[in-house]
Amino acid sequence: MRELLLTAEQTDDGITALDFLKARGFSRRMITALKRSGGLTRCGEILRSVDIVRAGDVIHVVQVDSGGVVPNSSIQVEISYEDEDLVIYNKPPFLAVHPSVRHYDDTLANAFAARFPDTPFRPINRLDRDTSGLCVCARNRFAAAGLACLKKVYFAVVNGELCSGGTINLPIGRECESIIKRCVSPNGKPAVTRFEPMESVNGRTLLKIRLETGRTHQIRVHMSHIGYPLCGDRLYGGDTSIDRQALHCGEVEFIHPVTGERIQAFAPFPEDFCSLLS
Asked: Which of 26, 49, 275, 278 has the greatest count of CB atoms below 10 A from its CB?
């Protein structure tokens, strides 16, 4: 359960409760759920979406969520940041984010369910099973709605030595009707990747990468397409130096949806990633 106290300002005087809540990031679906649960009140009385709000009114919002994922307390994942609205995990490689047929109770979602019982798992940025790094998860609907805009920085180690950075602006689509593999395709969706070399060691380059779009396997596809596949990325032509693609989400930044505070989190490189640069 998450409780919020929202105070109406002078500029809110005379508008409906619906418009008041929408201006603070609540969707119609969220507002409908609040009405059904009785979670929207003013001075102890139920507030309807058509009621008029006056300056100085304190609106009491109570959100009640329910879980649905099997909890697994044996999965220990480092937490980089946590408050009552969100949690940022430093996900290790080889840990899936969501349960699936092959991973029913051994995912980040199961670890989340053990730590936050009866709370739905709402990851904002989703990482591949083999990609390590920061994964931001909302602990309620309101936080999830307000966390849509994350600034993320990825780090990758690629085969080959790159001396200068650049921008890859090439559309990405499915390859030959494959469920998994993607490729650069004129019929694909727009995809933009910006990369900057940081260090070259033993025929490999450490890159700092920012995405303007979020296509499936975007970094892996784009870097492979220009001749610099990620180390360990067998699917897209990488070597066998490690057992997974050398990709790590090392930085995230966003404005907190409730407090308005600027939040930054950082995750150090995991051991297998560092071994490529030693």
From this structure: 26
Q: pTM score, two decimals?
A: 0.78
Give whole-number Cα distances, 236 to 39, 68, 184, 202, 241, in Å.
49, 35, 12, 21, 14
Q: Are 66 and 117 in contact (CB under 8 A)?
A: no
**Is 128 among the residues known to form the active site?**
yes
DSSP per residue, 35-86? HHHT-EEETTEE--TTSBP-TT-EEEEEE-----S---TT---EEEEE-SSE
- Other CB atoms within a 10 A radius of the CB of residue 200 amount to 15
Q: What is the pLDDT of residues 101-143, one digit of tens each?
A: 577 789 999 999 999 988 889 999 989 999 999 999 999 888 9
Which amino acid type is present at position 119?
T
- Quickly count: other Cβ atoms within 10 Å of residue 14's Cβ: 11
What token pair was written down for 234? 């067998």
- DSSP for 186-235 reads TTSB--EEEEEEEEEETTEEEEEEEESS--TTHHHHHHHHTT-PBTT-GG
pLDDT at position 184? 96
List the catalytic residue out of 83, 105, 128, 239: 128
Integer angstrom CA distances of residue 195 from 153, 155, 158, 200, 220:
10, 9, 11, 14, 12
- Check if the beta carbon of residue 268 is closer than 8 Å to that of residue 257: no
Q: Are 17 and 30 in contact (CB under 8 A)?
A: no
Tokens of 3: 């409780």
Which candidate, 211, 217, 129, places its Cα nearest to that of 173?
217
